[in-house]
């Protein structure tokens, strides 16, 4: 886990250098609320923890990132701008779902394709079954079953249900 | 000393497994019955040997034998007795032994119980089941041995963990162990992991029977399906309980306000559940109509492969996840094993395709067969989507070099519509007749529920200004609940008029006489209840967060919390507890005191946020302590979730257990159950081997 700590620390440094926190720049009066921050953080993923949305992540790094969102909101950034900023800084992995462009399109296409192909196969199979029945009924049954046996079977089947 | 006995019996178990598989397969192949009998006895011995090993590990954990690497990994002086025992499955080494032990228990049980009834299949059932059990025993012995000790090798900084001392090494015994992963230090430890493991390992039985049927050519008949039906139900039930308890545990411990996060490991468990559920349904067609034989075999093979894939994911840390507490170098052996199983099973299937011809045909697209087929297709499509979403980050990293996240929004969007379609089919399928269903009678039966559900959904939707998808979800839940309840009512009415029974008596008799069918419908109702929980969680969850000074309040959904104070103390098990006290009010009325807390595990440097919840029928108030003023402790930040309808999730879970048990409960009639083949040409009753 040590390398992870190093990565976090490095990511931090990079973030600080490229975008110094603007705590001083704020008026302090109309700071964005936690709810406003979380609404955006919810849509982002912690760049370092496994599968953790940024709004619930407990690491110190994530806390700082949430404060950064607050700062950006205070400076009048839009949600899209903030999201774009995080993607530019930490890569597409901060997005909760794969973007619908480039290679990631495959993530969306394959399940859809699966359903279409699956439905196609099901319909084909059903057609085949129906067709086979047409053939089957054309041939009369070869063994004669006494009607009383059929009646008994029918009755037992009825009882079964 | 005890550890040595455990190691010895573990080695014996491995040797026995090799012998059992060889003797069973050889005896079956050559028709040497004494070999097969010997294999049976040996397979029971494997279970006894592994039991000794498991007892030895538990004993070492309880006595804190720190000379064992595993004990120092998952236990410590501060660990309670409860957690010391459950630590058996709290880490890599122990959990694989536990897994192998459970699987050997299933193997021994089937070898004893099914010995007289399924003689033809037995050699191969024992052979195949022992091969997979043997693989896990091999892993325990050679890759993740819980009896490995720690050694200091001169000239090296690293401590070597091995059973036998490396050359010139001296034993290393730490002063204290590291203790269990903090997230696992919870009462849920007794529930979720063992049930999940029983569920996973239980699928070895239907799989072994399917493969044995293919090997012997017995796949021509559906006897193997009848024999394994109740075993499959046990595995399925435990897998379901494991999923539910896992969800409950996440809800109680992980502190994100939900019960399902589409985490890779959750997915790994959901996938075999999906294909297993599809299998439980497809075998109905195979039994009743002699159709979908190949498909049923494919599904059980797939289910078992996914079970192994699931362990592969969980135990190797291949994908990042909250469960990644057990990383190691198990990857390659698992990969090879899955490959062999995949190729072997499907080659066998292809060779035996001729035994799996469909017997019957159907008359109309409007038939239960067609509905079942679509339902199976959807189960598989969801599995594919979940699989794809789970492995896509890896594939993306391989191809583009960039790691991306495939999170809950993806899975919700992709699988949501498919689950909805599945629930809809679940509601209408019981109304379809086999072979052919007249559209008119179907319309007649569906008209009532459709109208009622539409009315309620539209009114509620407008009144509550619901998202269209949420309103549709409500419609779906009501519609399916009504159609399913109508099935009960129809059966009850018939009994009430024909046999003049009291309504309650009619209901009880109806269920008791058709346990399989009505047990299944009860499970369907349970799924509807859980769907309601999912809709509540997905569309109506609310949250708010704010820093509060002592005495200040925060409101959500008619509830108000007041921050009363913070207190810090040393908890048990090496944790520093920061506990907030808040008063919960509904309107102006005081309800109760809640104590959300943050446990900080000092050694692991890991915080765990424990929510405080207030549960009502309408929903849960779920309070989290997310931050606080370090020095004065005069202010703290709270997050409140309003989780509506969530109680339906858990009560639905209980209903699912009840329904499955009813469907599972043996009937005397089942023993002389007769396989009817409706075509006159083949009308010979075939006595089945019983369930």
Q: Quick one: biggest sheet of chain A?
A: none
Structural class of chain A: mainly alpha
Could you name the CATH homologous superfamily of the largest domain in chain A? Cytochrome C biogenesis protein
How many β-strand runs of chain A? 0
Note the beta-strand portion of chain B. 5-15%
Oligomer: heterodimer
Count interface residues per chain for the largest interface: A-B, 50 and 63 residues
Number of helices in the DSSP assignment of chain B: 20
Task: Compute the number of structural domains of chain A.
Answer: 2
Mean pLDDT of chain A: 77
Q: What structural class is derived from the secondary structure elements of chain B?
A: alpha+beta
Radius of gyration of chain A: 31 Å
Proportion in helices of chain A: 55-70%
User: What would the principal axes of the Cα set say about the shape of chain A?
Assistant: elongated
Basic shape of chain B: flat
- Poorly predicted ranges of chain A (pLDDT <50, ≥5 residues)? 16-28
Q: What does this entry look like structurally?
A:
Chain A is mainly α and 161 residues long. Chain A contains 6 helices and no strands. Chain A has helices spanning 2-18, 34-41, 60-74, 79-90, 105-138, 147-160. The two termini of chain A are 61 Å apart. Chain B has 691 residues and is of the alpha+beta class. In chain B, 59% of the residues lie in helices and 13% in strands. In chain B, strands 5, 6, 7, 8, 9 and 10 form a 6-stranded antiparallel β-sheet that branches. A 4-stranded antiparallel β-sheet of chain B has the order 4-13-12-11. In chain B, strands 2-1-3 form a 3-stranded antiparallel β-sheet, with no helix packed on it. At the A-B interface, helix 2, helix 5 and helix 6 of A face helix 13, helix 14 and strand 4 of B.
């Amino acid at each position: 886990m040590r390398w992870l700590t190093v990565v976090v620390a490095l990511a931090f440094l990079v973030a600080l250098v490229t975008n110094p926190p603007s705590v001083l720049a704020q008026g302090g009066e109309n700071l964005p609320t936690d709810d406003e921050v979380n609404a955006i953080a919810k849509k982002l993923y912690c760049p370092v923890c496994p599968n953790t949305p940024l709004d619930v992540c407990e690491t110190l790094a994530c806390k700082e990132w949430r404060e950064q969102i607050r700062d950006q909101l205070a400076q009048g950034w839009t949600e899209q701008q903030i999201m774009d900023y995080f993607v530019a800084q930490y890569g597409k992995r901060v997005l909760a779902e794969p973007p619908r462009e480039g290679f990631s399109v495959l993530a969306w296409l394959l399940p859809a394709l699966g359903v279409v192909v699956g439905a196609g196969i099901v319909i084909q199979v059903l057609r085949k079954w129906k067709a086979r029945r047409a053939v089957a009924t054309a041939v009369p049954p070869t063994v004669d079953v006494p009607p009383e046996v059929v009646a008994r079977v029918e009755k037992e089947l009825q009882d079964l249900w | 000393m005890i550890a040595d006995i455990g190691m010895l019996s573990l080695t014996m178990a491995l040797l026995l497994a090799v012998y059992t598989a060889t003797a069973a397969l050889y005896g079956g192949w050559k028709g040497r019955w004494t070999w097969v009998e010997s294999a049976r006895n040996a397979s029971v011995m494997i279970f006894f040997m592994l039991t000794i090993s498991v007892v030895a590990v538990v004993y070492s954990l309880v006595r804190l034998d720190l000379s064992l690497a595993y004990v120092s990994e998952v236990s410590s002086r501060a660990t309670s007795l409860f957690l010391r025992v459950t630590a058996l499955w709290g880490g890599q080494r122990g959990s694989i032994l536990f897994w192998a032990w459970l699987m050997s228990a299933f193997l021994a049980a089937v070898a004893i119980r099914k010995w007289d009834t399924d003689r033809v299949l037995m050699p191969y059932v024992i052979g195949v089941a022992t091969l997979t059990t043997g693989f896990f025993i091999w892993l325990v012995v050679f890759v993740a041995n819980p009896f490995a000790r720690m050694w200091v090798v001169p000239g090296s900084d690293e401590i070597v963990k091995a059973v036998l001392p490396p050359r010139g090494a001296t034993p290393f015994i730490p002063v204290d162990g590291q203790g269990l992963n903090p997230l696992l230090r919870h009462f849920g430890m007794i529930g979720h992991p063992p049930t999940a493991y029983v569920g996973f390992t239980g699928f070895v039985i239907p799989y072994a029977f399917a493969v044995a049927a293919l090997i012997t050519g017995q796949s021509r008949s559906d006897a193997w399906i009848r024999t394994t039906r109740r075993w499959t139900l046990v595995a399925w039930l435990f897998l379901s309980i494991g999923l539910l308890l896992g969800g409950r545990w996440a809800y109680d411990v992980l502190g994100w306000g939900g019960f399902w996060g589409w985490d890779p490991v959750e997915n790994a468990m959901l996938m075999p559940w999906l294909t297993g559920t599809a299998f439980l349904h497809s075998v109905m067609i195979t039994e009743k109509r002699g159709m979908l034989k190949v498909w049923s075999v494919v599904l059980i093979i797939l289910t078992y492969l996914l079970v192994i894939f699931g362990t592969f994911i969980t135990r190797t840390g291949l994908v990042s996840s909250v469960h990644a507490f057990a990383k190691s170098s198990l990857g390659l052996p698992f990969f090879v094993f899955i490959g062999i199983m995949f190729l072997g099973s499907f080659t066998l299937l292809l060779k035996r395709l001729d035994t799996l011809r469909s017997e019957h045909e159907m008359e109309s697209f409007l038939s239960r067969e067609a509905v079942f087929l679509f339902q199976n297709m959807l189960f598989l499509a969801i599995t594919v989507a979940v699989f794809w979403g789970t492995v896509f980050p890896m594939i993306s990293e391989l191809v583009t070099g960039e790691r991306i996240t495939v999170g809950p929004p993806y899975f919700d969007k992709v699988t949501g519509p498919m689950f909805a379609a599945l629930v809809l089919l679940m509601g209408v399928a019981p109304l379809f007749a086999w072979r052919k269903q007249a559209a008119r009678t179907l319309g007649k039966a569906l008209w009532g529920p459709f109208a009622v559900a539409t009315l309620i959904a539209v009114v509620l939707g407008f009144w509550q200004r619901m998202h269209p998808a949420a309103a549709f979800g409500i419609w779906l839940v009501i519609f399916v609940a009504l159609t399913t309840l109508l099935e009960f009512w129809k059966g009850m009415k018939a009994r009430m008029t024909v046999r003049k029974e009291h309504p309650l008596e009619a209901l009880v008799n109806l269920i008791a006489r058709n346990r399989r069918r009505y047990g299944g419908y009860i499970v369907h109702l349970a799924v509807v209840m859980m769907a309601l929980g999912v809709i509540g969680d997905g569309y109506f969850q609310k949250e708010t967060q704010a820093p509060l000074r002592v005495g200040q309040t925060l409101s959500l959904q008619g509830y108000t919390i007041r921050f009363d104070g913070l207190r810090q103390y040393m908890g048990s098990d090496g944790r520093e507890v920061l506990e907030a006290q808040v008063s919960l009010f509904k309107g102006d009325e005081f309800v109760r005191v809640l104590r959300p807390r943050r446990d900080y595990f000092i050694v692991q440097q890991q915080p765990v946020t424990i929510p405080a919840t207030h549960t009502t029928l309408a929903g849960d108030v779920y309070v989290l302590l997310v931050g606080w003023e370090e020095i004065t402790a005069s202010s703290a930040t709270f997050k409140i979730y309003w989780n509506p309808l969530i109680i339906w999730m858990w009560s639905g879970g209980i209903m699912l257990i009840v329904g499955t048990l009813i469907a599972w409960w043996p009937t005397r009639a089942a023993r002389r159950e007769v396989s009817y083949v409706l075509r006159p040409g083949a009308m010979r009753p075939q006595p089945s081997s019983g369930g």
